[in-house]
Specification:
The chain is α/β, with parallel strands linked by helices. The protein has 15 helices and twelve strands. The protein has a single domain, classed as Glycosidases (TIM Barrel). The strands form three sheets. Strands 1-2-3-4-5-7-9-10 form an eight-stranded parallel barrel, surrounded by six helices. It has a two-stranded parallel sheet with strand order 6-8. The protein has a two-stranded antiparallel sheet with strand order 11-12. The longest helix is centred in the middle third of the chain and has 25 residues.
Amino acid sequence: MNSFPPGFVFGSATSSYQIEGAVDVDGRGESIWDRFSHTPGKVKGGDNGDIACDHYHRFAEDIALLQKLNVDAYRLSIAWPRILPTGSEATPNAKGLAFYDRIVDGLLEAGITPWVTLYHWDLPQALQDAGGWPSRGIIDPFVHFADVMSRHLGDRVKHWITHNEPWVVATLGYWNGEHAPGIKDPNAALKAAHHILLSHGKAVPVIRANSADSQVGITLNLTPGIPASGSEADRIACQQFDGFFNRWYLDPLHKRGYPADQVAHYEDEGHLPKGLDFVHDGDLETIAVDTDFLGINYYSRAIIRSDKVDEADNAPRTQAVPPPERCTDFGWEVWPDGLYDIMARLHHDYDSGDLVVTENGCAYSTEPDDDGRVKDARRVSYFDSHLRACLRCVTDGIPLTGYFAWSLLDNFEWAEGYEKRFGLTWVDFETGERRPKDSFRFFAEVAKTGTLPTW
Ligand code: FCB
């Protein structure tokens, strides 16, 4: 069977800071990504999102692209500092709201369902100055932002995602400092993770109250780990990787609290000098609020080798280091089975309910040929293989209900700048020109027919 069931949602995704540009237009305030990308040495090539894809001005063209892509749905995010320039004003910025009205109304006219992510990383700088995600004081402003947006768009938007990838926000933002705001403090990162989850739990009922009959969820980036060998050291390292990357988020969201083995590990490492003192009474109940779906961003798997024993003393690898030809420009291994494995685990182990792939895609920097065509065969193959993994989930009865390709456009890839291209559409960052790639035509055909080709 090569066909998806009727009703399976095909979509594509973007995020505000990665595509909008227009960073100081119509009253938008400063975000942590403006500050970070303008700090020398933080983003490759000294790139920033000042202009990006200029989607702020070209959104109508991008909605036309989505129509050509035959998608049912489009996942976008809201730039918090466009709405509340310093993060918590009582009265929202009307021009910011009007921009998202134009997009949402344009999508609905085009027959495309908007899926709105509230937080895709562009925190108002003023809120970071007040402590950012490691501070409990961030929760009320986030819930206020969720209230403002769901009140304003709730009649037209019926699919809401509170947060995109809490692991990335906490770990890259506050643990290793690779992302904005560039802080390197594991304890702060664990507090950030908790406050992100807690703000999700508090925002869900607010969104539901404002947006009748809506579907509300959260998006996690999940990466299955596999030990590099059968050694005890690799097994333990892999369990810790899973605790760090997957279970630290999955467990509290599924009423299990924080995983005890990982708490003990963080205590051993000195990351929790005061234990879980930032977890207050009632927090875990709030975090475990019922949701309508779980969003998963899947890109790759991880092969885990212990760094606690010398290579010479460890068992020989039974999982080889992936060869470069199996990796994308990011160095991420192409491993479609991992998507299946994650979904099966969520269904069988966590009983997660409805699942949606809210991002999946690959970085390959194919440029237009002499004839102007962008022949990105490796991206076609990536999407084909991962869509087949999705189909296998559906066929096996795993409740996977939709798939969003990352991304509609080549865009600002965070600390990697513009060098890593994930788009179905090639973008000329000098002129703003958009050019659909071969993968765009491939995905458009799948979205139209609901069927994967027989090669
Ligand atoms: C995810 C992010 C998205 C994009 C892709 C490549 O972690 O959610 O914004 O950067 O990776």
